[in-house]
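Here is the promised in-class demo. Please do not try to memorize the tokens; focus on the logic of going from shape to residues.
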């Protein structure tokens, strides 16, 4: 490790207590998607204390951008701010003060890390050492979409208040890896996420006279058997893709056959061709209802595209993280609305090891991180900014 890396790490480590303080404060005030009022105000206040950023509030909702403008290339870094509707069970001294809401996906840490990066970049900007423009994006509403199916990333992109990025970066907490490890991957790295509501319509009646009905529950069992086999028969074994059922509802009592069955689920894949094929197969499976005298309706809600990490941006991250262990593997079948940014600009996300010995998974009520990971995140993002600006003059 050369002296330059050591200097970056030392500067990041000097921010440890402050970054932890930011994260713990944010952890106590979790707010759900599209309602990040306190979080946004606090972040804006902390950014403004640096006295050098051009700060915009209300970007795509409660989003905040902070810009350091200089001649040269333009790079962005995004952190999400929203929390989840989960009752926290960590017993931490800084647990959520908002019952029923919790930072169970690490967005408090993401925002605290970006505040740390802001502090270091502000020092460089004041000294004339920043060779390009940097825009920091604190994004609302990553976890949920609005009635139009749009998340915070889409709203920020549609705000026309963002820079025209030459590259954009993000990180995510990774509880299955420890401090000193990151996960990175070229190309598709997280799944698209489309949701569906399938209605199987039959004809209800008295449970004692099933022959006088057209039982939609029985019809639905035939459809479900086909849906559960689609992944293995319709998807190339070298690709990834799945249809999953999360909720089935029908009827209200034990002696009445209902008129309809409601089936809710998701369609996930990495490639657009697989995505479209799975949706086609979903409709084909549902159409079996017609063969049994019933009918069907499929309501699809298109969600995030698959996260595509651009190889050239990943190379910058790898150089910036050369002091840690780098694992090259896809991030899984979860979805991430940062994918909208990497569809619009060259960009990449990496997963930052934060796991403890008894680490809980993301979205669990006892999720927590090893807070020492945050200075690693600060150092990698900060270093990546400078490397990108230097290499793209």
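The designed amino acids, position by position:
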């Amino acid at each position: 490790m050369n002296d330059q890396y050591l200097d970056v790490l030392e500067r990041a480590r000097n921010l440890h207590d402050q970054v932890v303080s930011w994260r713990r404060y944010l952890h106590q005030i979790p707010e759900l998607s599209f309602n990040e009022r306190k979080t946004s105000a606090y972040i804006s206040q902390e950014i403004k204390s640096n006295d050098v950023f051009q700060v915009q509030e209300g970007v795509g909702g409660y989003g905040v951008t902070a810009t350091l403008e200089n001649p040269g290339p333009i790079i962005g870094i995004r952190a999400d701010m929203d929390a989840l509707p989960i009752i926290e069970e960590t017993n931490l001294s800084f647990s959520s003060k908002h019952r029923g809401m919790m930072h169970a996906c690490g967005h408090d840490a993401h925002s605290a890390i970006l505040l740390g990066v802001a502090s270091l970049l502000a020092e460089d900007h004041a000294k004339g050492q920043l060779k390009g423009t940097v825009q920091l994006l604190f994004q609302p509403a990553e976890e949920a979409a609005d009635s139009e199916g749009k998340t915070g990333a889409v709203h920020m992109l549609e705000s026309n208040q963002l820079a025209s990025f030459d590259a954009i970066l993000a990180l995510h907490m990774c509880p299955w890896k420890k401090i000193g490890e990151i996960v990175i991957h070229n190309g598709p790295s997280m799944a698209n996420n489309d949701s569906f509501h399938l209605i199987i319509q039959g004809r209800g009646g008295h449970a004692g006279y099933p022959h006088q009905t057209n039982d939609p529950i029985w019809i639905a069992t035939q459809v479900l058997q086909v849906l559960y086999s689609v992944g293995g028969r319709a998807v190339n074994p070298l690709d990834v893709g799945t249809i999953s059922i999360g909720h089935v509802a029908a009827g209200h009592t034990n002696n009445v056959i209902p008129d309809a069955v409601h089936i809710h689920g998701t369609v996930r894949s990495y490639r657009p061709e697989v995505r479209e094929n799975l949706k086609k197969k979903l409709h084909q499976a549902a159409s079996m209802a017609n063969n049994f005298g019933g009918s069907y309706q499929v309501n699809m809600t298109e969600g995030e595209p698959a996260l595509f990490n651009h190889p050239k941006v990943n190379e910058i991250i790898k150089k910036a993280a050369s002091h840690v262990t780098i694992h090259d593997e896809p991030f899984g079948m979860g979805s991430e609305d940062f994918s909208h940014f990497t569809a619009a600009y060259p960009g990449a996300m990496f997963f930052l090891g934060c796991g403890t010995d008894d680490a809980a998974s993301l979205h669990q009520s006892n999720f927590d991180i090893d807070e020492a990971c945050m200075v690693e995140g600060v150092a990698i993002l900060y270093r990546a900014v400078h490397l990108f600006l230097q290499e793209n003059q």
